[in-house]
Amino acid sequence: MAGVKHRFAHELLVLGCRLRYQSGQIVRGGALDDFDRRLIALLRQDGRMPVAVLAAKLQVSRGTIQKRLDRLISSGAVRGFTVRTRQELDETVLRAVMGVRTTSKKPAALIKALNGIPEVVSLYTTNGVWDYIAELRAESLSDLDRALREVRSIDGVASTETSILLGAV
């Protein structure tokens, strides 16, 4: 890194690693900083919070917030904004979590297959008994059953365990 000028350093989070643009080069760095975490926490409370309100709450300029938000979005640290509805508005949707144990020697293919199932809305790696935890949403029990059978038919899936989410507490 010797000889790299630091006057044009901008930091981004990409795939869990902080990357820094320095004079047109990308270099690795640390994780999200405290400011990133506080900004993301406010956006989790209200994804529609205006930049001016975010700036006031974090005691910085609107320009600082906008630049940081642009970086978080372009880097993939913030992948989008969503609407949270009351649970009773989603009663027609079945939600479930599924633990998936694998024997796959090709995890990329298995992950692609799991993410290709429309009912799988998110997928996480984990430690412990399960290799992956999948969050599923389906319109009916028959749709959920079809999705579960599809997951179990993927080459490399050794076993699964599914729990239907009944309600938030």
Tally of extended strands?
7
Order of helices and strands: EEEHHHEHEEHE
Characterize the overall form: elongated
Largest sheet: 4 strands, antiparallel
CATH H-level superfamily title of the largest domain: Lrp/AsnC effector binding domain/regulation of amino acid metabolism (RAM) domain
Low-confidence stretches: 1-30
Q: What is the percent of helical residues?
A: 25-40%
Structural class assignment: alpha+beta
Structure description:
This protein is an alpha+beta fold. It folds into two domains: 10-75, Winged helix-like DNA-binding domain superfamily/Winged helix DNA-binding domain (Arc Repressor Mutant, subunit A), CATH 1.10.10.10; 87-165, Alpha-Beta Plaits (2-Layer Sandwich). 33% of the residues lie in helices and 27% in strands. It contains five helices and seven strands, in the order βββαααβαββαβ. The chain has helices at 34-45, 51-58, 62-75, 107-115, 141-152, and strands at residues 10-14, 17-22, 25-28, 94-102, 120-125, 132-138, 157-165. The strands form two sheets. The chain has a four-stranded antiparallel sheet with strand order 5-6-4-7, with helices on one face. A three-stranded antiparallel sheet has the order 1-2-3. Strand 2 (17-22) and strand 3 form a beta hairpin.
